[in-house]
Amino acid sequence: MHFQIVPSPNISVNQNTGEPFRPSVFILLFDSVSRSSGIRSIPKTINILKENYGAFDFRGLNKVGSNSLPNGYAFLTGIRTEELPSVDFHMDEKLPSERPNYCHEYVDNSTFIGKNFTDAGYVSLMAEDWTYGVFKVPGCIGFSNKPTTHYLRPFYVRMGEDKMLREQTLWQPCIETYQPLMEYHVQFLKAYPTTVPKFSLIWITELAHNYLDGLFHVDDYFANFFQQNRQLFRESFVFMMSDHGMTFGPVRETKMGQKENGNPMLFFAVPESLSHNKQLLENLRTNSADRLISHFDVYTTLLDIATVAPRTNWTDF
Ligand SMILES: [Zn+2]
């Protein structure tokens, strides 16, 4: 079974140079990887991001819900799906969910960030290696329409349905499920000229969701990926992150495991054109080192990149 990127005829490849600067955005998410676990598992990759991309290590990112769905909702739509315990002494009181019926409403009708980027003229891509997907967990309806210009979901739905196909496509040639995602993504990056801004979200579940040591063996792969493709990401915001830490297993019985579960990793690099902006760098230094942040801050940052920041020509940080 194969996949390919066929460039969309609806995307203008001759961007007007008078347009505001529109850097690309790449989000690489490893499901269930805490900051500590990331540092233990993929040190070479992190080192390349820090040294070659100038990435910041956000030490204080907090998850906002128990599993992928509420955290995905938070950083991709800005919507709080879970109830919030009161912070005062009336401990019985809870703030209700901002979208109590979220599992039975299409994500298309939300503030999904991919739409903001598409509306701003970006060509977009979303791809996950889990047959269900973050918004389509059992019991939830997910998207009604293709949410991005390019979408790999049909490939993994077929893989999930047909064991023989999975065996022929992945197991026999010894291909792990993350590899087609990455190949698809590189095809995407190369299918459009650099003048076309790109938004891409790669969500990798199978590597680490069930295995605390699942990421170790891919450190060389991702270190090479970021090293070899430095040029492709030169004018991009790059997020390498997770939704939460390990959610189950013996490690959760330990105090460290509980702390790690609440502190997903986030490494974040800015486009080269913005990498000398003193105010931006100061904000990133402060917010990465000394502040507690949450997935709602990630959403706000994405929204700023898609909407407000270009209007001020990236001068207001
Ligand atoms: Zn998850």
Describe the structure in your own words.
The chain has 317 residues and is an alpha/beta fold. The protein has one domain: 3-Layer(aba) Sandwich (Alkaline Phosphatase, subunit A), CATH 3.40.720. 36% of the residues lie in helices and 13% in strands. The strands form three sheets. A seven-stranded mixed beta sheet has the order 2-10-9-1-8-6-7, sandwiched between helices. The protein has a two-stranded parallel sheet with strand order 3-11. Strands 4-5 form a two-stranded antiparallel ribbon. It is globular, with a radius of gyration of 19 Å. Zinc ion binds at residues 31-32, 67-68, 243-244.
Descriptors:
11 helices, 317 residues, alpha/beta, seven-stranded mixed beta sheet, Alkaline Phosphatase, subunit A, Sulfatase N-terminal domain-containing protein, binds zinc ion, two-stranded parallel sheet, 11 strands, Alkaline_phosphatase_core_sf
Give a short overview.
It comes from Plectus sambesii. This protein is α/β, with parallel strands linked by helices and 317 residues long.
Helix coverage percent: 25-40%
Which architecture per CATH? 3-Layer(aba) Sandwich
User: What profile does the largest beta sheet have?
Assistant: 7 strands, mixed
- The general outline is globular
Q: N- to C-terminal separation? A: 46 Å
Count of structural domains = 1
Based on helices, strands and strand pairing, what is the structural class?
alpha/beta
| Total strand segments | 11
Beta content: 5-15%
Total helical elements: 11
InterPro entries: Alkaline_phosphatase_core_sf, DUF229
Pfam family, one: DUF229
Protein name: Sulfatase N-terminal domain-containing protein
GO cellular component, one term: extracellular space
